Amino acid sequence: MVLLLKLLLSSSIAHSSLVQAPEVITLWPNGAPGSEERRNEPEVRPNSYSIKNIQNPSLTVFRPPAGKANGVAIVIAPGGGFTSNVFGPEGEQPAAYFNKLGITAFVLKYRLSRESGSKVTVDVSAKEDGYRAMRTVRAKAADYGIDPAKIGFIGFSAGGEVVSSVVFGDVPSVKSPDAIDAVNGRPDFAMWIYTGPVAIPQEAPATPNLPPAFLLCAFDDEGHLRPTIDIMNLYRKAKVSAEMHITSGGGHGFNLGNREKKLISVQTWPQRMTDWLIDLGFATKV
């Protein structure tokens, strides 16, 4: 009996050693601009699926299975209204989905400008953290077997505002630039999933600055449908390729469709995105 327990214990230890925690890349080793003095504050987990008090922005790396990677990468910005980061359903779960397509995923923890006690603003910190995330992935492309010309950016809800700040915003100025700040921070493709409202240019930006886009929202998602349509209209003015899907229902925050109980179109929306990625050459049929 004692021998059996020892064998089970040693087997458990061996198994746990094989299951490694995902790699985490700190975006600003000396602290994010304006948040340097808070970079050592611990993150807070108010529940099993979200994170608060993000003072030290980072990327969590999720790699495809061995032999599956196709050289494409995606930065994922979860939602949460800038009061939390819905890291599980809109970060880890999408990362696992992209991994199945051979895409290396980087889930972004960005600063939360609307939580109590925050000293940053959406228009500044979201752009800084979003750009830094894109630049970091591109700067480290060789380390992860990534094609630096095949790096996308997807945002859910408030995360969509982070994507917009990078796609439509000017390059942010950094007080103490380092080598990464000289790297191109523009995504090669962009996706907005029930995006939050954000100021976008009244006039269409120069065509070369816009990556091909995928947009998704529910018809009954008040406050998020209009920004989705606005982005599509801007793309139409710029004459840049974009694909938009509006489901008949589903409300807000249906994640990968697993929260919807009735509508098949919502439950299966990731397949529409996959088809689009395949059409553009960023994924292959599985």
From TrEMBL:
Entries under InterPro entries matching the protein: AB_hydrolase_fold, BD-FAE-like_dom, GDXG_lipolytic_enzyme
UniProt domain BD-FAE-like: residue ranges: 60-163
Keyword annotations: Hydrolase, Signal
GO terms, molecular function: hydrolase activity
Annotated Pfam families: BD-FAE (PF20434)
Signal peptide positions (record): 1-21
Name listed for the protein in its UniProt record: BD-FAE-like domain-containing protein
Organism: Fimbriimonas ginsengisoli Gsoil 348
Upper lineage: Bacteria, Bacillati, Armatimonadota, Fimbriimonadia, Fimbriimonadales
